[in-house]
Amino acid sequence: MKLLILFLALSLLISFVYCSENNVNKIIMIERQLIKSGFHKTLRTSFHLPKDIKNDNLLNITLVENVQKDIYFDIYEIKNFKNYFTINNHQKYIDIEKPSYLIKDSEYVTISFHQLLSIDTIANHITTFEIPIHFRYQFPKEKLEYEEIKVLDPKFVIINNVQYEIIKASNITDDNSLVDIPIGNIEHFKTVQFVTIFITCLSSLLIIIFSFIKKN
Questions:
Q1: pLDDT tens digit sequence for 150-176
Q2: Quick one: which of 29, 97, 18 has its CA closest to 65?
Q3: Whole-angstrom distance, CA of residue 61 vs CA of residue 114
Q4: Full DSSP string of 132-188
Q5: Is the pTM of this model over 0.70?
Q6: Which H or E run includes 34?
Q7: In the chain, which ranges are continuous DSSP H helix?
Q8: Half-sphere exposure in the Cβ direction for 131 (13 Å, CA)
């Protein structure tokens, strides 16, 4: 009898978990790619809006991005980038000059990007976020010219106060979010150090010589 009760309890629990997972609101991410080259790019993310919001005329859409140690978003730049973006971040100050290897775990944050759009202005029920993204300097290494960085995918979108779990379309692969960042080579350090000191000394000597000639 006890085994039967235990079996029924486990069955109910499994059924509850299964139903809960299948009742989660979902949204399909149909595009995720990095545009432009170098340390400064644009992160483009597009979603196919769920059909159950078609009757809502005004959409308040929030995309939550992870700010990992290798990247940063310049909040001042974004505020001037597109006037319909507003930003909600949990960090008072972002040091844009700090290299990735000096970033502490406590500095990892999430930043929310908001769009307030009319459903009539959204073509084919697709909305797109284009956000300037920047990559931090990496620690110099031996015999390596580039460091491969992957931009983490967002986990959810909030539309009119309803949270939607992001599901990636089959055409989106990890390659869409990978970027090769040029890094310094430790083997070049001594050469750069010597050239820097030499040019500094030579420049100082030339300034002294020309100053002396000018006086005479």
A1: 888 888 899 888 899 999 998 888 787
A2: 29
A3: 6
A4: EEEEPPPPPBTT--EEEEEPPPP-EEEETTEEEEEEE-TT--GGGGEEEEE--BGGG
A5: no
A6: strand 26-35
A7: 2-22, 75-81, 189-215
A8: 29
